[in-house]
């Protein structure tokens, strides 16, 4: 029959000694557990508060925090060694007092001791340290400074071992863009804007210049032979700060005119040779990644580039603002008009799109996957091009097309070019 009894003959001095040792070890375990939370819960404002105090305890805390790896190793080594010693000591104390038969020995030596150790050696000190980490860190700084010296050999081995394991793990822990994108999709953020920004950061290195550039037909340029009056007129009408200058056509870009370079010559006559102020144009291939382009912009300290195809023909124009908008979203200022918006939501699942919008931007706007129209878009890059691929002919005003649960209606034309397209997404 299972039973628990007190031994008839007790070694009182042995019991007292083991009890005192157990209490001391329990306090040491509580100190180690509490110090871990206290020190590593300190915020930047807490550190500044300690720096302002200039007391001995505050200086000890700041000194310990200068090497957080060694501090953490000291705490972990101390805590584990103390807990091991505590379990052994308490087990001997229980065996010195009680005589067990059956399952009671397991209950005392495993369940009860573990519960007491977790409650008084882990949970309570961590809760107390969390409520006032500055005070607890200051109070525990003296014993920790002593323990840091005492367990240094073991802590040194732990630091070196963990550092080597960390390097090996990081060397093999490669994550693909797809996995990172999936992680972002599963992440709950505070707002839709934050989610879009995270998605933009993930896809940043996978986006080509051709996907964000302003197409050739939307480039505002100045003829090289234009008079100074004509130049000023273009600047006033467009409001642009950097304008490409071309010869016969846009395939012959000869430079970029910075409006700020004209400020000191604003009152010159119509025959002023403004061409001498042109800056060297920067040409980039259409399939260049935008993260590489950003590095080039930073290196060359410029904000605009002319996009060319494999034959050197001008395909479009890209600016630093276009790149930043891939991460932070649309950037507008006082000079931007509502007419410059590439789309407008006019109802539930109903939109009006500018036909020149890139297909990638279009699918983002309607909440579809990036490759939703990959099977029908062919070589098209814009929404207007997608309409041509769907119709297999030149679109005309009033045409209605449908694909992948999306209805397209050609609303307006600019000559032979599609201008506005109404879009309705079926539920």
Description:
The structure is a single chain. With 427 residues, the protein is α+β, with helices and mostly antiparallel strands. The protein folds into four domains: 3-172, no CATH class; 175-205, no CATH class; 207-328, Roll (CBS-domain), CATH 3.10.580; 341-425, Uridine Diphospho-n-acetylenolpyruvylglucosamine Reductase, domain 3, CATH 3.30.465. The protein contains 15 helices and 14 strands. The chain has helices spanning 12-40, 44-53, 56-65, 68-97, 104-131, 133-150, 152-172, 177-186, 192-203, 209-212, 228-238, 290-300, 320-328, 359-365, 383-391, and strands spanning 3-6, 98-101, 214-215, 222-223, 242-246, 253-258, 283-285, 304-308, 314-319, 343-347, 350-354, 400-403, 406-414, 417-425. The chain has a five-stranded antiparallel sheet with strand order 10-11-14-13-12, covered by helices on one side. Strands 3-9-8-7 form a four-stranded mixed sheet. A hairpin with a 2-residue loop joins strand 10 (343-347) and strand 11. Helix 4 (68-97) crosses helix 7 (152-172) and helix 8 (177-186) packs antiparallel against helix 9. The longest helix has 30 residues, at 68-97. The mean pLDDT is 80.
């Amino acid at each position: 029959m299972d039973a628990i009894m007190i031994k008839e003959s007790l070694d009182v001095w042995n019991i007292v000694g083991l009890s005192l040792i157990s209490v001391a070890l329990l306090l040491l375990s509580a100190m180690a557990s509490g110090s871990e939370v206290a020190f590593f819960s300190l915020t930047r404002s807490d550190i500044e508060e300690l720096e302002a105090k200039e007391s001995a305890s505050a200086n000890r805390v700041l000194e310990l925090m200068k090497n957080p790896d060694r501090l953490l190793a000291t705490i972990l080594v101390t805590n584990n060694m103390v807990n091991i010693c505590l379990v052994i000591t308490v087990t001997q104390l229980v065996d010195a007092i009680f005589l067990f038969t059956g399952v009671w020995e397991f209950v005392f030596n495993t369940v009860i001791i573990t519960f007491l150790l977790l409650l008084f050696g882990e949970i309570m000190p961590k809760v107390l340290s969390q409520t006032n980490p500055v005070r607890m860190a200051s109070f525990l700084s003296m014993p920790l400074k002593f323990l840091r010296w005492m367990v240094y050999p073991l802590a040194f081995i732990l630091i070196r071992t963990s550092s080597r394991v960390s390097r090996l793990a990081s060397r093999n822990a490669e994550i693909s863009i797809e996995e990172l994108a999936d992680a972002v999709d599963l992440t709950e953020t505070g707002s839709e804007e934050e989610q879009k920004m995270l998605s933009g950061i993930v896809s940043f290195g996978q986006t080509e210049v051709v996907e964000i550039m302003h197409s050739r037909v939307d480039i505002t340029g100045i003829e090289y032979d234009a008079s100074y009056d004509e130049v000023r007129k273009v600047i006033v009408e467009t409001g642009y700060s950097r304008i490409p200058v071309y010869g016969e056509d846009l395939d012959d870009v000869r430079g970029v005119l910075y409006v700020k370079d004209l400020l000191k010559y604003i009152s010159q006559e119509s025959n002023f040779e403004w061409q001498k102020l042109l800056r060297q144009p920067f040409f980039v291939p259409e399939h260049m990644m935008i993260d590489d382009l950003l590095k080039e912009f930073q290196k060359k300290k410029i904000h605009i580039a002319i996009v060319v195809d494999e034959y050197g023909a001008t395909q479009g124009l890209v600016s630093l603002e276009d790149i930043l908008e891939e991460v932070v979203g649309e950037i507008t200022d006082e000079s931007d008009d509502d007419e410059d918006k590439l789309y407008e939501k006019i109802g539930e699942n109903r939109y009006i799109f500018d036909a020149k919008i890139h297909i990638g931007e279009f699918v983002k706007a309607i909440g579809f996957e990036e490759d939703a129209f990959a099977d029908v878009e062919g070589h098209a890059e814009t929404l207007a091009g997608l309409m041509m691929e769907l119709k297999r002919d030149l679109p005309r005003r009033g045409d209605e097309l449908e694909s992948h649960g999306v209805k397209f209606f050609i609303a307006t034309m600019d000559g032979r070019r599609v201008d506005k397209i109404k879009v309705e997404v079926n539920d």
